[in-house]
Amino acid sequence: MKSTILLLTSAWAVASCTQQVKDNTPPPTPQERTIEEAPTKIDTTTSFDLASIPYSESDIGVFPFFTPPKGYKEMNQPIKKDFDVCYFAINGVMKPFEGRLYKANITNEQGTQFSQRYFEKSMEDYLASIGAVKVFDGTITREEYDRYNKQDPHKGDEGDIGYVDEQIRVYVIRTKNQGNIFIQYTCNNAGAKLNILQENDFKQTIKKITADEITKDLSETGKSIVYITFDTDKSSITTSGIDLVIQIAEALKNDPSLKIAIEGHTDNIGDSAHNKKLSSDRAKAVMDALIAQKIDKSRLSAKGYGADRPLVANDSEDNRSKNRRVELVKIK
């Protein structure tokens, strides 16, 4: 009986001691605070509360804010955009954020080997030192990948993160002067991928082309480049494209002596013969639309050049979009 009482007393004492240790555990520092870890099942309704993350008072530098660790470098040309979208793993859900973007593959410099732990430790310690808060450390499900991957315009590009087998770590830095900064990376002993986004609002830079601007271009340079929109792979002009045609007609009506050649151009994607015919059909469609606006046919000509006269190199989607154009050339 005494032995039984002694055992029960000892067990109670151990439990009390254990509870006391738990109660005396100090609260986490701001660097150690994390948003709730990813649930076993993905809940796409889970909210992400940025307001719960404390502001960093550290000097974090300028975009993209930090370099790779010593001995490591960018493998190729990184993606650097003043405004773009990047998907970050938040509670296991790939969510889009917009702003200034940096995406890169990171590799070792010659004479060194890539160490996963060295990269992870470098990132963990540095991000903690500047007040970054880890908001996710885990993987996404196959279901989540299938849901979002076709929405991501950078799938397969430099620094592409967000695959089923990747351990993804996401951090957030809140600042009062530079906004919210999202950082995510993944790595193994072969290399790493790093994404940095400085969240900011989109600023519209497109403005309506007017008859006065077309007249000014034709007068000063003898040419005006316009981006009339057509239905995909067709020569039918869209509603917004017709609005631009009306401005061209207005410029021609303001100067009855003005004659123009309408030249159609495409990028280099697809069959060359098809592109040339498409550009010719589109140039003719613009001419017909101008005639419908009471412009005399004798003042107009139309010709398509396909991809033969690129405005810029067809080496990116941005440049290819610049090459898909209509040029108005003043006929002397």
Short description, anyone?
By secondary structure, this protein is of the alpha+beta class. The chain folds into two domains: about 30-200, no CATH class; about 210-330, 60s Ribosomal Protein L30, Chain: A (2-Layer Sandwich). The protein has helices at about 1-25, 115-130, 140-150, 210-220, 240-255, 270-290, 315-325, and strands spanning about 70-75, 80-90, 95-110, 135-140, 170-175, 180-190, 190-200, 225, 260-265, 300-305, 325-330.
Structure description:
The structure is a single chain. The chain is of the alpha+beta class and 332 residues long. The chain has two domains: 30-199, no CATH class; 211-330, 60s Ribosomal Protein L30, Chain: A, CATH 3.30.1330.60. The protein is built from seven helices and eleven strands. Strands 1, 2, 3, 4, 5, 6 and 7 form a seven-stranded antiparallel β-sheet that branches. α4 (211-221) crosses α5 (239-254). The protein is elongated. 27% of the residues are buried. Residues 1-45 have low confidence and may be disordered.
